[in-house]
Task: inverse folding
């Protein structure tokens, strides 16, 4: 009787290996040959599970995104308005080793997505969802009377996205100037500004 292969499990293994390679050496280290070798496959065998490298990179990004989204959901809980903005941002900031690692995968994905329309669209969809959530929390904060800033909502959303993306980049490129304490201080200063007219 032939051995039953769990293709989903094999895909998860390939993604885990790819993530590990990206963490260790960036996207350049995650060649198809290296991924296959680390996963215990012949080089051409990866095609049975993923059509190409971009599909593996996409799967790796989606895994990191799912882990981050889980943390964001926990960080927000039942809160709304400013509390939800703070919870969401704290969960997305690279405040510990696990989230710094997720940021490394994200940075590699951005590099690939910059020249790949399909991957770029995946990130654009994620960004649109993120922006919608921020818009909802800002609207709730205004409705609750906690957000008094006259700065347009769209600008506030842009600033929060830039704060989070910038912190993820700096935690990898200039960690001395992007400590968890500094990241929290920047976030708190931003949120405090929202409470002033």
Result:
């Amino acid at each position: 009787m032939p051995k039953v292969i769990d293709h989903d499990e094999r895909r998860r293994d390939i993604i885990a290996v790819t993530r590990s390679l990206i963490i260790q050496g960036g996207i350049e280290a995650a060649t198809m040959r290296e991924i296959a070798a680390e996963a215990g496959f012949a080089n051409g065998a990866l095609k049975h599970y993923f059509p190409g490298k971009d599909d593996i990179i996409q799967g790796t990004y989606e895994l990191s995104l799912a882990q981050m989204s889980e943390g964001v959901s926990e960080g927000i809980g039942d809160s709304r308005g400013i509390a939800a903005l703070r919870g969401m941002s704290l969960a997305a900031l690279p405040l510990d080793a696990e989230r710094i690692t997720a940021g490394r995968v994200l940075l590699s994905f951005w590099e690939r997505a910059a020249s790949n329309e399909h991957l770029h669209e995946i990130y654009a969809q994620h960004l649109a969802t993120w922006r919608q959530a921020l818009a909802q929390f800002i609207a709730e904060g205004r409705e609750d009377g906690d957000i008094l800033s006259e700065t347009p909502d769209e600008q506030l959303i842009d600033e929060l996205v830039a704060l989070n993306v910038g912190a993820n980049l700096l935690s990898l490129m200039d960690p001395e100037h992007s400590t968890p304490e500094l990241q929290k201080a920047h976030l708190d200063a931003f949120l405090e500004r929202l409470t002033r007219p």
User: Anything to note?
Assistant: The domain at 4-195 is CATH 1.10.357.10 (Tetracycline Repressor; domain 2). The radius of gyration is 19 Å. The chain has a mean pLDDT of 89.
